[in-house]
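New to this. Comment on this protein:
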Amino acid sequence: MAILLNQSFNPCDLGEINPNTTVLEWLRSNQLVGTKEGCASGDCGACTAVVGELVTINNKNVIQYKSINTCIALTYSLIGKHLITVEGLSEDDNLHPVQKAMVSENGSQCGFCTPGFIMSLFAMYHNEKNINLTKINDALSGNLCRCTGYKPIIAAAYSAFSEKDQGSLDFYERNQSQFIESLSKLSEQKNINLNFSDGNKTLVFDAPSNVGDLSQLLSENPSANIVAAGTDLNLEITQSMKEFSHIVSVNRVSELKQIVEKGSEIEIGSAVSYEEAKSILIKYWPDLDSFLQRFASLPIKNWATIGGNIANASPIGDMAPVMIALESKLKLRKGKSSRTILLEDFFISYKKTLLEPSEFIESIVIPKPSNQDRLMTHKISKRYEDDISAVCMAINVKFNKSKPNSVKIGIGGMSGIPQRAIELEKVFLDHWDKEGLTSAAYEALNREFTPFSDVRASSEFRLKVGAGLVKKSSLILQGYPVQDLAHYSESKKS
């Protein structure tokens, strides 16, 4: 099984490796040690590399480049793709424009995290025509500098693009047609089945190319571990040293990677990444733009899938509360049979769902909003971006003229599962523009939930913050500027 690696047009055979091997582990064992290991959990960005994938846009094959965290990506998940590391940027001892910019702007500092920053900037270099501080911050959202000096790195981003504006093309731009040709040949193989044996055990990796083959494979192997991106599941490999005996990857299943608008609904395949789904989501729910900015770093959003986040069933998974508030449904498939359920009914208890053995999420179906609908999302965490929520809340309000006549509220971090807050919905409709909403919301949350206490927040904090977010939402709906909310008092509106 092969990939393209750096500047070579010839396939690179991955060899017979343990299917649990991460990309970072494979790189460093093959002497590509520019990519560093920092956290091994997708948090720091020291391991950032860039993956190029062949896609068809307007009937034309192009390569899309995206930054990923190699520490939590499985090596076999890159089969048929183009992997670029920091070793693949310079040409004949001439530095890439991004590298030259980092040197000239003194952005390298101690150097440990520098390769990760360079690769994030390299991806932006290929994906953006014009940049600004917002785009730079987004591109670097997954990279943490241990020397605290972000200013020269940002300056390096501007400097690199200044050179690009002068019309210079890097190696990958000049040779794009050859890379497309090579990737086209690699993509000809459909279903992938690999077995690894070390004499004591046999480990299996499967990657079917269509939903029918996936259904059959899971029916024959009900105990197999389904992996999309594995940004959370793979932590069991890197942090808990767990080894999965049979991995079934869904990231090659074409039907699960589609986004379809039909009538009053949007259907998003379960293997669609967050970055791929972003444009359609913010088209209908603009408030999701800022929420997705905080949801995760760009390398995580490039790799992680909506279906995987939901199937993981974490009580602090941020997308589930949003999808609950939007009255989303899940299409589940097992063999040749399928069923559709409300997402709010999917979660049973901590990390347990309605999924039966061999069953998987095929797609997420979201009703389109009316012109009067308003979705508000809130994420409370210790760090602004790329951090786990203490409380996540989504409030979807439907109006009749100027008054709410329906509301759906999804909450994460308040119990062992992402959950719809039915009692809170009643309170919101009765008190949304009245004094005392905060206290009424607190009492409703206290009746409906038994929040847990952990390192992120106490149970009391979660209740008070939840009530405060309800009040904040009501003020926004009443037209109070968000920036002035800190100066608002219950007794005097200003």
